[in-house]
């Protein structure tokens, strides 16, 4: 399918190489099996993680400790190509690099970095991020998970987290908890007594992804488990900004996959004696889908350039996450209508992407949260409280 605005011509040669390498990986290792993974609600993380590590995409935007240290647009392009395969695949990489590795890299002690980052970059250890709770999603300041220090200096962690990607397969969890001194992050090996992570089943979205609850029942951690470099909501919110940047790029790939499927189908499905792509109403659908796709690609590229310049602001990330997820979801829904009944089968990628994007719309900040973030940026007035 034509890139109508030639956006990839704006990529540097190394960024195009990353695009091609990730595209090839997805074509060879993901697309042949992802429909089956989705149908059976499995994700072969232990098999794929070392391969993703060898590809260099785990923590690829971080420096040192076995990480590739690549620029923001390269990371975005990789997320785009991963999500063209499946949102669950991009989610795995986002959680590993932006939510689990990033806080250790940014706020961790040298000992924590040396212990975890090289293994996580190689895909030898899997991480998860514990912020969302059963009763506290969009308002993380109200979290109930707490950690208290006893006279020995150890921390005792109690509480629960929910909707945690990679939770039941993780080797380490970065968990945020209330303490007497404010919200702190803890590096929690998942084999610590009192830690449990049952998987959440019966999902109809992100089925090719592991989603879990986390429970902490008097989990005893040494003083060295605390992330020393941050206190307060700044810590988890900065991680979410990193992950949301990957999302606003990733969903461009999901939208592209749906658009390509619709275009291919419209050129070959014959009705009333000619391909349905020859009818004006179908061409109108395809044209609007292409406009939405190219606009989301422009937004992602612009925000990537701002991130590389060090000027990207949280409200701009909210703009990109809100606009691009909505665009991708609209494309998926229109593509489903072009494919008709075939659009609801896993023989085509559309319904799988459409169902996944329903989750992407609400995780890492619901559209309402991002709308209010933009409203505050426009008015200076906080509508959250």
Automatic annotation (TrEMBL):
Cite the Acyl-CoA dehydrogenase/oxidase N-terminal domain residue spans from the record: 13-124
Q: Which Gene3D superfamilies match?
A: Acyl-CoA dehydrogenase/oxidase, N-terminal domain, Butyryl-CoA Dehydrogenase, subunit A, domain 2, Butyryl-CoA Dehydrogenase, subunit A, domain 3
- Keywords per UniProt: FAD, Flavoprotein, Oxidoreductase, Transit peptide
Identify which cofactors the protein needs according to its UniProt entry.
FAD
Question: Locate the Acyl-CoA dehydrogenase/oxidase C-terminal domain: which residues?
Answer: 232-378
Q: Where is the Acyl-CoA oxidase/dehydrogenase middle domain?
A: 128-219
Q: Which family does it belong to?
A: Belongs to the acyl-CoA dehydrogenase family.
Identification of the protein by name: Acyl-CoA dehydrogenase family protein
Q: What is the lineage of its organism?
A: Bacteria, Bacillati, Actinomycetota, Actinomycetes, Streptosporangiales
């Amino acid at each position: 399918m034509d890139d109508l605005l030639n956006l990839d011509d704006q990529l540097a040669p190394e960024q195009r190489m990353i695009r091609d390498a990730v595209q090839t990986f997805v074509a060879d290792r993901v697309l042949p099996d992802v429909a089956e993974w989705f149908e059976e609600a499995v994700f072969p993380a232990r098999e794929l993680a070392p391969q993703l590590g060898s590809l260099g995409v785990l923590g690829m935007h971080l420096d040192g400790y076995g990480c590739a240290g690549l620029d923001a647009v390269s990371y975005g392009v990789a997320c785009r190509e991963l999500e063209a395969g499946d949102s669950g695949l991009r989610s795995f990489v986002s959680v590993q690099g932006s939510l689990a590795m990033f806080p250790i890299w940014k706020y961790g002690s040298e000992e924590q970095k040396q212990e975890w980052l090289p293994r996580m970059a190689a895909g030898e250890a899997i991480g998860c991020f514990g912020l969302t709770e059963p009763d506290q999603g969009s308002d993380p300041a109200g979290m109930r998970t707490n950690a208290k220090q006893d006279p020995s200096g150890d921390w005792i962690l109690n509480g629960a987290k929910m909707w945690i990607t990679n939770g039941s397969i993780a080797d380490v969890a970065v968990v945020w908890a209330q303490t007497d001194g404010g919200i702190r992050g803890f590096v929690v090996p998942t084999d610590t007594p009192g830690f449990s992570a049952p998987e959440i089943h019966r999902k109809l979205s992100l089925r090719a992804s592991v989603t879990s609850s986390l429970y902490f029942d008097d989990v005893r951690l040494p003083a060295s488990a605390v992330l020393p470099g941050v206190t307060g909501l700044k810590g988890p919110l900065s991680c979410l900004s990193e992950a949301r940047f990957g999302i606003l790029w990733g969903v461009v790939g999901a939208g592209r996959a749906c658009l390509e499927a619709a275009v291919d189908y419209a050129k070959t499905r014959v009705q009333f004696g000619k391909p349905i792509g020859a009818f004006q109403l179908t061409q109108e659908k395809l044209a609007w889908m292409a406009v939405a796709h190219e606009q989301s690609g422009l937004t992602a590229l612009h925000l990537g350039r701002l991130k590389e310049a060090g000027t990207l602001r949280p409200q701009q990330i909210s703009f990109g996450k809100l606009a691009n997820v909505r665009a991708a979801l609209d494309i998926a829904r229109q593509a489903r209508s072009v494919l008709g009944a075939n659009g609801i089968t896993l023989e085509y990628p559309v319904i799988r992407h459409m169902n996944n994007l329903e989750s992407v719309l609400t995780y890492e900040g619901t559209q309402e949260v991002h709308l209010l973030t933009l409203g505050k940026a426009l008015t200076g007035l906080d509508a959250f409280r």
